[in-house]
């Protein structure tokens, strides 16, 4: 089977019924997509197939001849992040991080899909309902989803399109925050 | 104090959003084998015979282990506190829960490992199983554990006790007695990342273990103990936990992977399936809680009697610790001067239970908070007011005689009332956590108060020798 993975033509001799997830992780060491349930139920293994979000644990590699596969590895890298990645980072949408790659791919697909309908002269953010529908098959056990939904909506507004990369994570006090008040007496 | 009040980036945020965080299963090493465990299909059975010879001769199988391959097979989390070990890593004469590992295999690929499991012959003699903690103490209950129906090592007792004040006096004096039964059930943690380990035997005899544990040095100790190796022969690599919620403190996959790796002298990876995670990984314990409160018609709680049964599953693990926390919190955020608490860790033929988000405390909080609302309903009082009235104050003492220094019940309750738009009478709105005085210090609450400035009460002595109902004692030493 020959296909394109993150822009690179690849061929595999794996049995045609081998799941794409297994080929990505075991054969090509592309470990961004995660095995969560391997039954299509959790979304952690989501990749884009010709731009559409798909569960890589359920896709037999034999059905993917000539397909174009995109994983989180192609979305951006630490010094050149995609807007949706910056939004997830800024809004603390990743907690343990295990579901994040799948969430990002579904979010990117939603933003790509709706972008053309925003019309000229400015971008309309995706609606909360659209985000909930796009992420409905994605399980997160840490966050409660609130921050993830916020991040996807924020990314869709274009707010992060020109944003700086996070770069060095050494913190500086936020001048907009009041000085913390120290309560009680340290023991 | 530069960090307090500042909004800080996550140190691991960029790794998460680029898919570069390396969870255990993302690591692959040359020569790596794949593990699978043979698990008991019965809830309770005697293991008559285990024959692994056919599995061992299957092409591609590099190691098969049973309990005989484990240097110290039986382990207990509380051994350092003098509690004997009770749980085998791999079952010996008995399988005590459905899913308990009996043997494990490491093979060149996963399919071969699965095939090898089918070639292990085990002869079982099925035994009656116990699932209902309420039936564990009946005379004809199935024998589940070598220690009997309950964990017997709470100091001199077979249960965790709290005694404070004079509970009989409270129930004689009460206008009303309100009782309730609460039964929070088992919950699976369902982390997105299932249990996983990668154990690598190093050429110098050391062992490197990639682990999803929530407690690195604790799990290191568990593995070292089973292998009878000094701690400095084992290196743990972890810190990337794909969700744990308490379910990754039990060291579920590391030790078996390590035993296989040492026997095969090859790296061994073991990642549990989602099905295994649901069916055989530990859960939050089911509980049975019976409590009754002695109350006055104007809403004071004079005393509480409580019995808790904690379902440990088939082995003790951390259950005595969870029940102890439960005991410490059995008055909730309220001050009750007269207490009698008895808590039992009960063995059943269920998967052993463990920590989960507020180990032992969520169950008791659910019971206590539901019950105090029930008390208010029975008395025809406002459930907010009864909470504020009985709320912990500075100088009040807990069931185990810790004096409150900064109790938050009053401010939290007031803030909650405001957030939900609950109107409170001015006398309640004006409440603070300061020491009780005046109407908030009725006679029955005087004896339990710690003297001003005293933070810890001597466990051996009464709170205040001059008070008639101030006698206090605690059972158990750990």
What low-confidence regions of chain B span 5 or more consecutive residues with pLDDT below 50?
461-478
Cα distance spanning the termini of chain A: 66 Å
Annotation field: number of helices of chain A: 5
Rounded Rg of chain A: 19 Å
Mean pLDDT of chain B: 94
Proportion of residues in helical segments of chain A: 25-40%
Which spans of chain A have pLDDT < 50 for at least 5 consecutive residues? 168-173, 180-187
- Using DSSP, what is the number of strands of chain A? 5
Radius of gyration of chain B: 26 Å
Largest sheet of chain A: 5 strands, mixed
Q: What kind of sheet is the major sheet of chain B?
A: 7 strands, mixed
How is the quaternary structure best described? Answer: heterodimer
Q: How far is the N terminus from the C terminus of chain B?
A: 37 Å
Question: Would you list the SSEs of chain A in sequence order as H and E?
Answer: EEHEEEHHHH
Note the beta-strand portion of chain B: 15-25%
How much of the sequence lies in strands of chain A comes to 5-15%
Mean of the pLDDT scores of chain A? 88
- Which structural class is indicated by helix and strand composition of chain A? alpha+beta
Strands of the biggest beta sheet of chain A: in what spatial order?
A: 2-1-5-3-4
- Biggest interface, chains and residue tallies: A-B, 51 and 42 residues
Total number of strands of chain B: 21
């Amino acid at each position: 089977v020959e296909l394109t993975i993150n822009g690179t033509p690849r061929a595999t001799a794996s049995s045609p019924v081998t799941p794409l997830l297994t080929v990505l992780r075991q054969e090509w060491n592309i470990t961004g997509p995660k095995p969560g349930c391997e039954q299509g139920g959790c979304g952690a293994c989501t990749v884009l197939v010709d731009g559409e979000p798909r569960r890589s644990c359920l896709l037999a590699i034999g059905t993917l001849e000539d397909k174009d596969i995109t994983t989180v590895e192609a979305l951006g890298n630490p010094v050149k992040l995609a807007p949706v990645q910056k939004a997830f980072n800024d809004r603390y949408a990743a907690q343990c991080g295990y579901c994040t790659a799948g969430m990002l791919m579904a979010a990117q697909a939603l933003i790509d899909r709706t972008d053309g309908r925003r019309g000229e002269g400015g971008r309309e953010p995706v609606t909360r309902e659209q985000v909930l529908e796009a992420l409905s098959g994605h399980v997160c056990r840490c966050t409660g989803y609130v921050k993830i939904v916020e991040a996807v909506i924020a990314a869709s507004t274009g707010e992060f399109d020109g944003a700086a990369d996070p770069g060095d994570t050494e913190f500086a006090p936020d001048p907009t925050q009041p000085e913390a008040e120290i309560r009680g007496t340290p023991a | 104090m530069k960090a307090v009040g500042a909004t800080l980036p996550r140190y691991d945020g960029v790794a998460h959003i680029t898919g570069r965080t390396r969870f255990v299963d993302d690591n692959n090493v040359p020569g790596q084998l794949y593990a699978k465990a043979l698990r008991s299909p019965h809830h309770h059975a005697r293991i008559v015979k285990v024959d692994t010879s056919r599995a061992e001769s299957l092409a591609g199988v590099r190691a098969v282990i049973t309990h005989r391959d484990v240097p110290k097979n039986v382990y207990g989390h509380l051994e350092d506190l003098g509690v004997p070990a009770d749980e085998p890593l791999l079952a010996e004469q008995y399988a005590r829960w459905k899913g308990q590992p009996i043997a494990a295999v490491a093979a060149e690929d996963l399919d071969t490992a699965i095939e090898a499991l089918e070639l292990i012959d085990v002869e079982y003699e099925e035994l009656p199983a116990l699932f209902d903690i309420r039936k564990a103490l009946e005379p004809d209950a199935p024998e589940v554990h070598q220690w009997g129906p309950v964990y017997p090592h709470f100091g001199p007792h077979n249960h965790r006790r709290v005694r404070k004040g004079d509970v009989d006096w409270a129930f004689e004096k009460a206008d009303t007695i309100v009782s309730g039964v609460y039964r929070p059930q088992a919950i699976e943690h369902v982390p997105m990342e299932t249990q996983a380990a990668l154990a690598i035997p190093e050429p110098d005899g050391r062992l490197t273990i990639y682990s999803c544990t929530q407690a690195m040095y604790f799990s290191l100790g568990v593995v070292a103990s089973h292998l009878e190796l000094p701690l400095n022969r084992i290196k743990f690599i972890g810190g990337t936990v794909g969700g744990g919620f308490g379910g990754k403190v039990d060291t579920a996959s590391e030790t078996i992977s390590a035993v296989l790796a040492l026997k095969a002298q090859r790296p061994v990876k073991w990642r549990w399936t989602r099905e295994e995670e649901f069916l055989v990984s530990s859960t939050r314990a089911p509980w049975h809680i019976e409590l009754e409160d002695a109350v006055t018609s104007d809403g004071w709680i004079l005393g509480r009697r409580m019995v808790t049964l904690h379902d440990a599953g088939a082995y003790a693990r951390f259950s005595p610790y969870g029940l102890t926390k439960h005991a410490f919190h059995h008055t909730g955020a309220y001050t009750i001067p007269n207490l009698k608490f008895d808590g039992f860790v009960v063995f059943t033929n269920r998967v052993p239970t463990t920590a989960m988000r507020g180990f032992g405390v969520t169950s008791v909080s659910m019971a206590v908070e539901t019950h105090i609302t029930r008390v208010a309903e029975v008395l025809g009082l406002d459930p907010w007011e009864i909470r504020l009235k009985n709320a912990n104050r500075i100088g009040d003492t807990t069931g185990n005689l810790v004096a409150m220094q900064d109790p938050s019940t009053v401010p939290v309750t007031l803030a909650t009332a405001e957030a939900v738009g609950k109107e409170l009478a001015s006398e309640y709105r004006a409440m603070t956590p300061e020491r009780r005085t005046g109407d908030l210090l009725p006679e029955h609450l005087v004896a339990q108060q710690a003297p001003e400035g005293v933070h810890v009460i001597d466990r051996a002595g009464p709170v205040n020798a001059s008070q008639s109902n101030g006698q206090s004692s605690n059972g158990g030493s750990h």
